[in-house]
Specification:
By secondary structure, the protein is α+β, with helices and mostly antiparallel strands. It contains 29 helices and 19 strands. Strands 1-3-2-7 form a 4-stranded mixed beta sheet. Strands 10-13-17-14 form a 4-stranded mixed beta sheet.
């Protein structure tokens, strides 16, 4: 389909965007890159459409009428097509309202002589006729002769070859309308469910949509009002200071329904009407989200999400409150808050977000004291105690800074100038700002400017910051710290102590600036540690090693990975020799002193790949049939008694996959494996563990091994 035809079909109400599609998120650089590729006739991707006479909910005001017959639904390529519509038509496409255009990419200019693309810059473009708005060229409001005439009016001589070059470039831009936008079409016979599944598969292989965005698209396909319903609640929360994106809602739903932070596919196939997802959302919307917001404001002194280092620390809290129906005791709230603080200052979710959420959410589900155990996880990775050195050179982006704010608010701290309490100041004039106690202008003059990286970092250090209301910060002059702090000490002495500002007036002198920092670091470390430890006592119990931790450690004498029981991924076929390898490994673990664990469905690199191929090799089996096959295999090799008493078989989820976990206890007698070699000659072998392998023991070593192992 030509680009001009695609745009016409939008205007003629023949091509639509479904409601489950996300907003327009492309940025100006994306638009520039697209136009640049089109001018140069480079490939620009394809368009996936679905021809249907039973479309899902549509974006925009238009309502489908069956009299229209089959229409096209744009499933993939809408960001590109929306960009072209805005640049060529100069308007928003009818399926988007202004709030859904997160970045307006209209107003792109082109230099018709060099083909440079740029958004309008007055000094660069206003007196240069070569710079033209792309939309004006597409709409034929400006033509080559207009540009040449304007150049000549400026006194420039336009030679024939220059005239031809500009004309060629203008034509190249106009010819974009005739470029083919390769189209793949899902046929009319496809159902809504099939079309959305295809949408997922197309997008899952790329990077344009996150897993959460894909899950939202799937949900919106079955529940067309979902996106608008979620947005409505987000708008309500934002008015209270809690600003979240749609992704956050998807993580919250996944956590509350499945205690998972990674497997978004669990949300894809929900019941379209009054299913568990809608029920979970109703509870989140009407109860849990507001309850968590209240806890944050009243107990953690968090007034808005801008103070939070990672909002995903709220997901385990939401899941916990969801399960408890919003009825937490004072002790439970204190434990929750304490964990939240440490999750922030120890940056629990800055990396490996899905994996860490998986572990933490399982703890929320399974542990009788989840926040005690969650805090122990943080403690195992890094000490909880804050040291004064952690403040050195740290700017306000460091997670210790919001912790300072929360602590100050807990003490009833006030703005140094106005005396207004820092907790929940009302009105924009009293919004909190971060003020330099020692003004940067004074520090810069004393050698703490950008010329010296180390000293500049000290000037911006969070220990040189006080919390003021906006109105106080705007009226505060760049007076010396000594003068300013003396004024506060005279009028509001408690305000200094409540913001941990040293009371030694000698430290307020500019020449003692670094001594001031040193003293305040120690004060902050001492007071924050005391505050955090005194919130509540936590009970630290024994914590088992998680499956993810086992896999991360890699294969060892007690752990083995097998990608498959029957399916040979290298040869693309069923290979029953793989079953013999599994039997050998189990025998080796049984013959060892400590036993071991075999994970099937995890490749040699420790990446979970699941059991789908194995299930298919047994005739589309499920885990019950798979376990029966395993037990029959082991019973034939080792006997029913060993299989029943020494093997524990389970099917845990990890990395979004179901795998098989076989825990092998040490055998009471030597386990001998019988079989036939490649020539058909029968053999009996005794396998043992050696590092992360399972070799058979040489005959001459067997007597000594048996005497020692089974004495």
């Amino acid at each position: 389909m030509k680009i001009s035809q695609a745009l016409d079909k939008i205007d003629e109400k023949q091509l639509f965007v479904p409601a489950f599609q996300r907003e327009y998120v492309w940025k100006r650089d994306d638009a520039k890159q697209l136009i640049d590729s089109l001018i140069k006739e480079y490939p620009t991707g394809t368009m996936l459409t679905w021809e249907t006479n039973a479309p899902p909910e549509l974006k925009g005001p238009h309502k489908y009428d069956q009299k229209q017959g089959a229409v096209r639904i744009l499933l993939d390529g809408q960001q590109r097509l929306t960009t072209l519509y805005m640049l060529i038509r100069g308007n928003l496409p009818p399926y988007y309202s202004a709030p859904e255009i997160l970045n307006d990419t209209r107003g792109l200019y082109v230099n018709v002589e060099t083909l440079e693309l740029e958004y309008y810059k007055k000094l660069k473009m206003q007196n240069d006729p070569r710079w033209q708005n792309l939309t004006d060229i597409f709409q034929r409001k400006v033509r080559t002769r207009d540009i040449i005439r304007d150049l000549e009016d400026r006194g420039e001589t336009v030679a024939r070859d220059r005239d031809d070059l500009i004309d060629d470039h203008v034509r190249a831009i106009e010819n974009i309308l005739e470029r083919d936008f390769p189209e793949q079409t899902i046929p009319v016979k496809a159902s809504i469910r099939e079309a959305i599944d295809i949408f997922y598969k197309v997008n899952a292989s790329g990077v344009s949509l996150t897993e959460a965005e894909l899950a939202l698209a799937q949900i919106s396909g079955y529940w067309p009002q979902a996106r608008d319903t979620f947005k409505s609640k987000l708008t309500e929360l934002e008015k209270r200071g809690f600003s979240f994106k749609l992704d956050f809602i998807i993580y919250a739903l996944l956590a509350c329904l499945y205690h998972s932070g990674s497997n978004m596919r669990l949300l894809h196939d929900q019941e379209p009407n009054d299913g568990p997802l809608q029920a979970a959302w109703h509870k989140l919307e009407t109860q849990t989200l507001d309850y968590v917001a209240n806890i944050l404001q009243s107990h953690a002194f968090v007034d808005h999400t801008a103070e939070i280092n990672s909002i995903y620390a709220l997901i385990p809290i939401i899941a916990y409150c969801f399960e408890r129906d919003g009825h937490l005791s004072d002790v439970e709230i204190r434990k929750l808050v304490k964990w939240f603080y440490y999750a922030q200052i120890r940056t629990r979710y800055v990396s490996q977000l899905p994996q860490k959420l998986d572990r933490d959410l399982r703890m929320v589900k399974d542990s009788p004291q989840p926040f005690d155990d969650l805090l122990q996880i943080i403690k195992d990775e890094r000490t909880l105690e804050i040291s004064p050195d952690e403040f050195v050179g740290r700017a306000i982006s460091h997670p210790l800074y919001p912790m300072m704010r929360w602590y100050f608010k807990s003490k009833g701290a006030t703005c140094l100038t106005t005396g207004i309490k820092l907790a929940q100041p009302m009105g924009k004039k009293y919004a909190l700002e971060n003020d330099h106690i020692f003004p940067f202008s004074k520090l810069k003059a004393a050698g703490y400017g950008i010329e010296n990286r180390i000293k500049y970092a000290l000037a911006q250090e969070i220990t040189n910051r006080a919390i003021l209301t906006q109105i106080a910060n705007r009226t505060k002059s760049a007076t010396t710290a000594e003068t300013y702090l003396n004024e506060i000490a005279a009028t509001n002495p408690e305000a200094l102590a409540r913001q941990c500002i040293p009371g030694d007036k000698d430290l307020w002198k500019l020449e003692n600036y670094e001594l001031f920092l040193e003293k305040r670091r120690q004060m902050l470390a001492d007071e924050l540690n005391h505050f955090l430890s005194s919130i509540t006592e936590l009970t630290v119990g024994e914590m088992p090693v998680t499956l993810e931790e086992m896999i991360t450690e890699g294969e060892s004498e007690e752990l083995e990975f097998k990608q498959s029981l029957r399916w040979d991924a290298n040869e693309g076929r069923i290979n029953r020799d793989l079953e013999a390898v599994v039997v050998k490994t189990v025998a080796a673990f049984a013959n060892s002193y400590a036993g071991g664990t075999l994970l099937i469905g995890v490749d040699d690199d420790g990446v979970p790949v699941g059991l789908e191929r194995d299930y298919a090799s047994l005739g589309d089996a499920d885990k019950d049939r798979y376990e029966l096959h395993l037990r029959n295999l082991f019973a034939k090799a080792f006997g029913q008694d060993f299989t029943a008493s020494k093997l524990k078989i389970g099917f845990p989820q990890t990395g979004g996959c179901e795998i098989c976990k076989i825990d092998v206890s040490p055998a009471d007698r030597a386990i001998i494996v019988s079989g036939n070699d490649k020539k058909g000659v029968p053999y009996e072998r005794l396998y043992v563990r050696s590092g992360n392998s399972s070799p058979d023991l040489p005959l001459n070593e067997i007597p000594a091994f048996l005497a020692k192992r089974f004495k």
